[in-house]
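dumping this here before i forget
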Amino acid sequence: MAGETNAQLPVVLVMAGHDPTGGAGIMADGEAIAACGGWALTVPTALTIQDCRDVHRVVPVPAELIREMAARLSGFHLAAIKVGLLVSRETLDAVVDIIKAHPGIPVVVDPVLKAGGGKELSTSTMVEAFRSRLLPLVDILTPNRLELERLAGTEPQDDEARARRLMALGCRAVLVTGSDDPDSNVPQDVVEQVLYASEQNRAWRWPRLAGRFHGSGCTLAAALAARLAAGESMEVACEQAQRFTWQALAKAWQPGNAQALPRRTAAQGSWHDPLQGVAKAPSMSEDHRNFTTHSKVIQEVIHRPGSVSLALPVTGLHHSRDSKEAYMTTSETLFEQARRHIPGGVNSPVRAFKGLHRPPVFMERAQGAYLFDVEGKRYVDYVGSWGPMITGHADPDVLGAVRSRLDHGLSFGTPTAIETTMAELICEMIPTIELVRMVNSGTEATMSAIRLARGYTGRDKIVKFEGNYHGHSDSLLVKAGSGALTHGEPSSPGVPASLAEHTITLSYNDLDEVEACFEEIGSEIACIIVEPVAGNMNCIPPQPGFLETLRRVCTEYGSVLIFDEVMTGFRVALGGAQAHFGIEPDLTCLGKIVGGGMPVGAFGGKRAIMEQISPLGPVYQAGTLSGNPLAMAAGIALLTKLREPGFHDALAQRVETLCHGLQERADAAGVDMITQRVGGMFGLFFTGQTRVDNFAQATACDAEAFRRFFAAMLEEGVYLAPSAYEAGFMSSAHTPEDIQFTLDAAEKAFAKVR
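structure:
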């Protein structure tokens, strides 16, 4: 007896309305959780005046009381949270704060938007707050079809599209009750429930019970929270919660002519194990359950008290806030921890927010056009992992391609057919590339291309441009000397001065300087390497004639023209900047998009030059993980999507709308700022100049104005590059609503810049 008394029960915090009939609300939730082996802590969010048929009045509980009640429960170790009725913005904010105070545990939300009899409980303002504030914190939402449509809007035409829209807003999974899957003919004598998670769906069919029931939705959500609290996977918990709910409805009690009330407990402990059959209940044979994927039905129940890990091997969901991991509640705390073992706390310097007078924001996950930080805040993202996420984060086609390869192994160190598929695709999309070599990063691509150009020409000197960034190899970390033709100087300790002597740094967009350089030492120059659109001193397009001049002098003097299209490749046009501007380089360097978000680079070009690479030629280049099959799968999936007619035109139109709106608002606020753009990339310059063409002009912009603007936009939920010298990136996942949200935020931010 003592052992049973001291057993650690999975504790679920319920924040829902109080229904005096006991059919729904916190009393019903508590019964369901207890019947499923858990313990319920109940905090009422609203009081309802109702019978078993209709709700006549709803009174919200004051937010300060909700916060105080939750705070007094700090002695309990929560394993899950279940949320029900919310009827005021203040109540919702209090619930959001309580959830944030308990990171790392499953959150189940039953979105009660209508009362019995069809009475609306939520205004459009509440629905919007629900989407933006609560959804990013939710692990699984359990709406009926009416609630699903209300939350997602009427534009999506079916349940799956609506569920996917809510998942794009931050919810990790949606279990729709009474779903209407257009691809599934559901017999009238059954009811179908569908779990939408990642790119896979799972459907269950249960015998339809006669009559109308009060409280079935809250019973399901509470049972699901208890199952997750006990450590079950999402799929298992969903099935067993449905099984429990069906049994509770099968034994429902009907007082008079009112709706029937689910019986979640019974005498003599007959409900101690909710998976046992219910006396006199209709048979539940295997035929009553139809699964829409190939995976087998999971029959066994896993009961692990104390565990709150969400292990989701079948559906592919991932919950990165596992309580077994060290989880911090603020980016500042995480940054301090990171600095103990990582130089500067980051693995790439721009992430450190240096010069912005604040710690960087630590992100937990991303979906579509959004980033979500460790505190659950959502941001409209214009960094896109520095360019690769051109169709949005967590693109289901890209993720699906990677998952399809996982079971084959991670890396072989041998040739694979998928590498050839990737090479064929790149050569088809960028015709100037006749042969291509896959590598692991943009830095590796540019470093290898320069070595190849030197080996091909037999020359040592290279030309680069101030403000262009081509990775951190020694030959490229060189700044200009005191004159245009003087020896370069290392821009980083560790770069030998003797190596810097071979690098000449010119001013971007300066045609005369290029001409003078080649007239003086053209016969010694192995190559020019250039960003055809400079994206590392913000976004600076080439002036008319600049790229044409580079092509002409390289041809005239026998030098190799290298386009660094790590950033612009497949972004400013399907064929990159070279297709956009109509210039043919000798070699092209690729990265970012070509890997679909995986660490991939590539360089390629004319056959005569590329045949100098080993094993065909004497110029050595190798890579243990080059052509990694998972990375190839991701890249092929993404590149294939970009070939859809009109993709890049639509992307450029989004950028134009954003930049035009930003310019209008800056002008209206009296802020000196201009925008520049090419295709799917753009830049903001806080300057009174009408155009920025080079590094000197870029560095003359108002860095303090940018800092204030960046901080204000971050506060409003818009994530821009944390540097005045980095371009911004648009994705096809950005909706008109996202752009309008950004412009509204900018209007407030510009007021803080003046």
